[in-house]
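Take a look at my tokenised protein here and describe the backbone shape.
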Amino acid sequence: MEFSETVSLQKVWAWLVAGLIAYVPANIYPMLRTSTLGQISENTLMGGIIELVHHGSYGVAFIVFFASILIPIAKFIAIAFLATSVRKPANLGNHGRLVLYEVVEFIGRWSMIDVFVVAILTALVQLDFAAAISPGIAAVSFALSVAFTMLAAQSFDPRLMWLAENRVES
């Protein structure tokens, strides 16, 4: 592997690890802090999902679970797989890996939807006498995690897949 290829992969791994590190507090700390008539409530991502299920909002709970838990974990796994498969070609083949890369790139554009929802809720629900919503530290951590995984995906050079395949064939 040439120096530039190694540097490219180092950037991918660095951004991916940074995204994983930011994802931990995004799931541990509160995403939203709600104050209703003097009562303060804080919910983590999973706490909010469980709360939605308890209130019978199964569809919304599924969407939040899918967008906040499953998609980020799938992105971490997909980017790690792509970066690893450059050194050791995978059974997926170049076309499959290229499709996976394009899916990760496409999903990256929509990954900030959770952060946008928190921002909109915060802006809309500011009735100081009755209710207020403010973002928690998890919202910032989640935004950082999404940004870092987007940078990891953008740092990945898809040409490396073809170079790795050509090395195996020759």
Notes: The radius of gyration is 19 Å. The first helix runs from residue 3 to 28. The first strand starts at residue 32 and ends at 36. The chain has seven helices and four strands.
